[in-house]
Amino acid sequence: MKQISKPILFAILLLSSFSQELQAQDPRFSQYYASPWNLNPALNGVFNGKWRATLNYRDQWGSIISPVPFRTYAASFEHRLQVGYGDDYASFGIGAMHDEAGTARFSQDKVHLGGSFLKQLSGGRRQADHYLSAGAQVGFGQNSIDWGRLWFSRQFDAASETPNTSLSNNEPNANADSKGYLDFNAGLLWYAVFENEGFFYLGGAMHHLNRPKISLAADDNETLYTRVTGHIGGQFPLNETVSLLPSALVMSQGPAFETDLGVNLRYSNNDFNELALRAGAWVRVGNKLQKGLQADAVTVVGMLELSRWMLGLSYDITVSSLTQANNARGAFEVSLTYFHPGEKRSRVVCPNF
């Protein structure tokens, strides 16, 4: 029988309360709109400028499993090109993600290459621009555990009543990592940009279409569930300086289901070197065993836009029964995006998520 340290055991029990099955599910960001590469492959190239670089970091449950909280890191780079003499675009990019959990540092690592094509459906001067974007990603991933951080019952020294990791654990699968696997993602996005800088979008994506095998054991039976995502939102100006950015996200992966609903309020000075501030709140709802859908957390968000940069900070306030353990302290996130301008200033044709 494997002996697990208290932080790992607590984390396992903790996560069990949120879904029927923990294996084969993806990391997530509360600021999903600030991590477009991981949300929908069709968002590749949906920005104004020549290229975009994005960084995301998430630190979860540090209040109860410190010093080894769940951590997620992501980075992406996209470069878009105009196709022909019209307003069609092609975009290419690369993105990577690293996620680690618990004392044993269970890690998920992924690297993808992606491409998309943005086709203008209609538009022109004094008309709304309508676009359809189709994107796909192909990449590799691997899961692993730092087995040196674990000890097993055969390594327990009864005389000293302490584990002796120099002894053999005799576990057949110890030191096993998942095989490197091939991974395919695809998505579609429709959006419209209006004269008053308002916009509206609707998109959907499917990740892990090939359901890759990710077993750490020799049986190789564990597969990564296909994740199905739908998202909708927009920007609706209230006056020349203030606008609302509502959004909704729905995700399903295996037995797990989640939806995020919220709105940001945006203020802009509308100068050439634009300064904008955003503040908002979001609620996350998910399925919990056989109890149906329940609210999990409320996320408060603050964002700063300064010319080519956008910085986002958010905090998840736990509202589920987990508050008995963490006193409502959930996850902290930071996002940073840089937009490199095009060679010439042109009319806005993309949403500013």
Structural features:
single chain, disordered N terminus, globular, mainly beta, 4 helices, 14-stranded antiparallel beta barrel, about 350 residues, about 5% helix, Porin
Q: How are the secondary structure elements laid out?
A:
Elements: E1 2-3, H1 6-16, H2 36-39, E2 51-60, H3 62-65, E3 70-83, E4 88-101, E5 106-124, E6 127-144, E7 151-152, E8 156-157, E9 162-163, E10 181-193, E11 199-207, E12 227-237, E13 242-253, E14 256-268, E15 275-287, E16 293-306, E17 309-318, H4 323-326, E18 329-340
Antiparallel strand pairs: 1-7, 2-3, 2-18, 3-4, 4-5, 5-6, 6-10, 8-9, 10-11, 11-12, 12-13, 13-14, 14-15, 15-16, 16-17, 17-18
Quick recap of the structure?
With 353 residues, the protein is mainly beta.
Radius of gyration, in Å, reads: 22 Å
CATH architecture: Beta Barrel
Helix content: under 10%
Across the major sheet, the strand order is 2-3-4-5-6-10-11-12-13-14-15-16-17-18
> How many strands, which pairing sense, and closed or not: the largest β-sheet?
14 strands, antiparallel, barrel
CATH superfamily: monomeric porin ompg
The number of strands is 18
Poorly predicted parts? 1-23
| Number of continuous helical runs | 4
Query: Whole-Å distance between the termini?
Result: 49 Å
**CATH fold descriptor:** Porin
Strand content: over 45%
- Counted up, domains total 1
Outline, from the CA principal axes?
A: globular
Order of helices and strands: EHHEHEEEEEEEEEEEEEEEHE
At the first level of CATH, the class is: Mainly Beta
Q: How much is the average pLDDT?
A: 84
